[in-house]
Design goal:
The structure holds two protein chains of two kinds.
Chain A: H1 11-24, E1 28-34, E2 38-43, H2 49-59, E3 63-71, E4 79-86, E5 94-101, E6 113-116, H3 126-136, E7 138-141, E8 190-195, E9 207-213, E10 216-223, H4 231-235, H5 240-248, H6 255-270, H7 276-304, H8 308-329, E11 338-339, E12 342-343, H9 349-375, H10 377-383, H11 391-397, H12 401-405, H13 413-416, H14 434-446, H15 451-474, E13 496-503, E14 506-514, E15 521-527, H16 529-533, H17 536-540, H18 549-556, H19 561-564
Parallel strand pairs in A: 2-5, 6-7
Antiparallel strand pairs in A: 1-2, 3-4, 4-5, 8-9, 9-10, 11-12, 13-14, 14-15
Helix pairs in contact in A: 5-6, 6-7, 7-8, 7-15, 7-18, 8-9, 9-15
Chain B: E1 40-43, H1 51-60, E2 66-71, E3 74-80, H2 89-93, E4 98-101, E5 115-117, H3 126-129, H4 135-142, E6 147-153, H5 159-166, E7 179-181, E8 190-194, H6 202-211, E9 217-221, H7 222-227, E10 249-251, H8 258-268
Parallel strand pairs in B: 6-7, 6-8, 8-9, 9-10
Antiparallel strand pairs in B: 1-4, 2-3, 3-5
The chains are: A alpha+beta, B alpha/beta.
The complex binds iron/sulfur cluster (SF4) (2 copies).
Chain lengths: 565, 277
């Protein structure tokens, strides 16, 4: 198994390129390789989308990573759709199917622009398609769910914010007489429990509609996008450095991962040689971000199973990490670490020593707290078999991060598509020998997808992250310069690239397309792990009881802001 | 000594609650921050710079916190901490004029008090004028022994939530000051509101406000809550909590650190004097 390896070795791309050409033949108008690992396949018409997507998804065994729509009418191209499929497990390849929708493509009798839906065969595409309908006004033909997603029912149906002719500052009057049609579950004894958007705790807003029979949840419908802030549109009105600041605030607790993905996208276009030390500092901070967030989630789970003492102990550890964040970066949330072309902070010797000391101390305390938690049958029993995500559901929804790993699907962008310092780190010693590999596979098979397995995956993640931090610090390079300054100068209008990173929630994928003046974006498509993982919660709670919901929710640890954008 | 940073001791001193970490003693007097913490930006008294450097600062500030205005025949520079999200870029281009300090920006009762000016007092913006006037009377009436706080996220990036949650951890342990986070607005004295007030949250926020019994206090948290922050005032946001419901206290920062949020809450209940020099 290839772990990390040489990031510039993309011999697989050639293999896939010829396979695609052979299979799809006339459906393809052009094919080219960009940024090392992106195979761009230009489809001849939009009608070819479904068949081509199914082939790449099923036969080439890829995961749908995101669907990008962009309004390129100003560049004379109409609307473009890009379906990004990612290989996993050691092959660093993205296959991007591109189709064009011309403005006079009025297959619905002149009423709407349309494109063929693939949601019935690739369920994970469903939300992207609804998003495109809201934001661009292009209808997914065949997607059974025609309800609005991002722009709630008070928004008029014919105004689409991500179109270039929409002004970001427009104030659109509200429509008050429409209601959102929730799925009705009927039958004797079934009742509906609406929850939110304002919740009982200190968390972000969202609405949940439970249908229960007695105490058992027989259906859950989530309704999100209450925190929609027009992030992607806003990015188009900023310069590249300002977008960096915005990317840190896509989801505050994922600041390093998201800003790193953004920077990497630009750096890939510019073929910038980011200094080794900068990459290492990014890696250290990214791992620190994982640690403090996992600690917070574990504490939350401990609260939700009713064990406040464990939660307090874990919260102290989280606080200690946040203080370390501040010491390292000047911000308790690690805002300001990344810069385009490098990093904005340096870690001098005294800081490094402090990081090593703190994480080592923390590691000891953490082990103690965790073994205490594992000691309590009341804690373990509440988590065991609660909120199960089956492997089938995880695969269909294309889950990422902890949510995938808890169901036995080993997905980790740090290993599958190595970036920053991860290609020189041996992330997974367990694959070293055939015996280790076998043992590991058995271990993954045993993953039950319940809250307990998410607990275990997180605990293991914290331990790994601490050792990664230490390993990187031991091998820290001594470059003097931490930012390559000319990244922005080397960008060209309408050039584009993917940027990606593994946050504590899973893979985050950012696609940028440079604007005409080269210091702005013509399109910034952000897809965080939360967007992919949110639908899983509707499946996870089935047949659990309502009081289990907070635990299931916390164990998945999803961001609302990162989803709603 | 509000906002002054005590020398940080990494071990020793205050109460040990286990896991070798100290509880914050008096969160107002005893503020911990590392020297490189980006807590607030301040205007230097005498900046001997040509105006171009001011303009560079104005231009680089993505939040629009720095403004140069004509004031008679003179130019005036203002800095709005209600907008600033503490990126530190202005200090990089005009270090003589703007300084990032590790003391956090002090929460205030009137929006215009967050605007610092080098040349006299900044012009008060009309929409903020009505705020804060009756606060004193109001708080006198509601104060029993404890304060019930309902947190409402009106579109935050969740950074502010991370810090509000931290108030409950054993280090800040806000309950010892009689401050409780409650589950329902019907039990609340104070609404602690974060986010730039997204359009999709408007109805929910207004309903929560209406559901809170009188007299009630609204505290806007973070650059977003104070002004819309980096998200501004767009088709999807409304540019700050006070565009939707009346606000009594503004807590600047991005996110404000736990001590600042506590300060804001105490200011809200009139436990500390209004203004510190
Ligand atoms: S630190 Fe504040 S005032 Fe300075 S540039 Fe950043 S947002 Fe503007
Ligand atoms: S003020 Fe800053 S941390 Fe708070 S919600 Fe706004 S962007 Fe996030």
């Amino acid at each position: 198994m290839m772990l990390g390896g040489d990031a510039t070795d993309h011999s697989n791309t050639a293999k896939y390129k010829s396979a695609i050409l052979q299979k799809l033949g006339k459906k393809v108008r052009g094919i080219h390789i960009l940024n090392g690992n992106e195979i761009h396949v230009i489809l001849s018409t939009k009608e070819e989308i479904p068949e081509s997507c199914y082939y790449v998804h099923k036969d080439l065994k890829t995961k749908l990573a995101t669907v990008i729509c962009s309004d390129e009418r100003l560049a004379g191209r109409g609307f473009m759709l890009r379906y990004v499929f990612a290989k996993e497990n050691g092959e660093d390849v993205f296959i991007i199917l591109t189709a064009r929708i011309k403005e006079n493509d009025d297959s619905a009798g002149g009423r709407h622009l349309t494109f063929p839906s693939i949601a019935l065969h690739i369920p994970s595409a469903a939300l992207y398609e609804r998003e495109i309908k809201d934001m661009f006004g292009i209808w997914p033909d065949g997607n059974p769910d025609t309800r609005p997603l991002v722009l709630h029912e008070q928004w008029p149906e014919d105004v689409h914010p991500l179109r270039k002719d929409f002004d970001i500052n427009s104030k659109i009057p509200r429509i008050y007489n429409r209601e959102y049609p929730f799925t009705k579950v009927e039958g004797e004894g079934v009742c509906e429990i609406p929850v939110g958007p304002v919740h009982a705790g200190i968390i972000e807003p969202g609405h949940f509609r439970f249908s229960v029979l007695g105490e058992n949840i027989i259906n859950l419908e989530t309704r999100l996008f209450y925190t929609h802030k027009g992030t992607e549109k806003l990015a188009e009105s900023m310069n590249l450095d300002q977008v960096l600041l915005l990317s840190e605030r896509i989801s505050g607790d994922e600041a390093v991962a998201n800003s790193m993905a953004y920077c990497q996208a630009l750096e890939r276009i510019a073929r910038a040689n980011v200094p080794k030390r900068a990459l290492q500092i990014r890696t250290i901070c990214a791992e620190m971000e994982r640690i403090y967030n996992h600690l917070g989630t574990l504490a939350g789970m401990s609260t939700d199973v009713g064990f406040a003492y464990g939660a307090s102990r874990l919260n102290i550890l989280k606080e200690r990490m946040m203080q370390l964040n501040e010491y390292v970066s000047g911000s308790r949330l690690l805002f300001g670490v990344n810069r385009i072309g490098g990093v904005g902070i340096d870690l001098m010797d005294d800081k490094l020593k402090h990081v090593v000391n703190t994480t080592n101390l923390l590691s000891e305390d953490f082990q103690r707290v965790i073994s205490m938690l594992k000691d309590k049958s009341s804690v373990m029993d509440r988590m065991r078999n609660t909120g199960i995500i089956t492997r089938r559901v995880a695969a269909d929804l294309g889950l990422v991060g902890v949510a995938a790993r808890c169901a036995g699907i080993d997905a980790d962008t740090r290993r599958d598509h190595p970036y920053a310092e991860y290609d020189s780190l041996r992330l997974d010693m367990r694959h070293d020998t055939p015996q280790h590999l076998m043992e590991y596979e058995i271990e993954m098979q045993k993953m039950k997808g319940d809250a307990l397995s998410r607990f275990e995956v997180r605990v293991e993640d914290v331990v790994n992250s601490i050792s990664i931090v230490n390993e990187v610090i031991t091998n820290l390079h001594s470059d003097n310069v931490l930012v390559v300054a000319d990244v922005v100068d080397r960008l060209e209008p309408y050039s584009h690239a993917l940027g990606y990173a593994e946050s504590h929630r899973g893979q985050t994928i950012h696609w940028v397309m440079i604007g005409e003046d080269c210091n702005s974006l013509s399109r910034y498509k952000i897809r965080t792990a939360s967007f992919v993982n949110w639908p899983a919660i509707e499946q996870a709670v089935l047949n659990d009881i309502v009081p289990d919901f907070p635990l299931v929710n916390k164990s998945l640890d999803l961001s609302y802001s990162g989803n709603d954008l | 000594m509000i906002g002054k940073i005590g020398k940080r001791a990494n071990s020793g001193s205050a109460d040990i609650v286990g896991n070798s970490i100290e509880t914050v003693g008096d969160p107002i007097k005893d503020i911990h921050a590392f020297p490189n913490y980006r807590g607030r930006v301040s205007l230097a008294e005498k900046a001997g710079l040509p105006l171009e450097n001011y303009e560079a600062a104005e231009e680089i500030c993505a939040s629009g916190a720095i403004k140069i205005q004509a004031c008679g025949d003179k130019e005036k520079i203002t800095l709005d901490m209600g907008k600033c999200f503490l990126c530190g870029r202005c200090q990089e281009v005009a270090p003589d004029l703007l300084r990032v300090e590790s003391a956090f920006a002090i929460p205030v009762r009137k929006r215009e008090e967050l605007i610092e000016s080098l040349d006299g007092i900044a012009p008060a913006e009309e929409s903020f004028e009505k705020m804060g006037k009756e606060l004193k009377e109001k708080v006198g009436k509601i104060l029993g022994r404890s304060l019930a706080v309902r947190e409402v996220d009106a579109g935050s990036c969740n950074g502010c939530e991370v810090e509000i949650t931290a108030l409950n951890n054993p280090v800040y342990d806000i309950e010892r000051f009689g401050i409780h986070f409650v589950a329902s607005p019907r039990h609340a004295d104070v609404l602690l509101v974060t986010g730039p007030a997204s359009r999709n949250m408007e109805v929910a926020l207004k309903r929560t406000y209406e559901a809170t019994p009188d007299p009630k206090i609204v505290v806007a948290v973070g650059a977003c809550g104070c002004s819309g922050g980096i998200f501004g005032d767009t088709y999807a946001t409304t540019g700050g909590i006070d565009k939707m419901v009346p606000v009594d206290v503004y807590i600047p920062g991005c996110p404000p650190r736990p001590e600042a949020i506590l300060y804001g809450l105490l200011l809200a209940v009139d436990r500390i004097p209004e203004k510190h020099g």
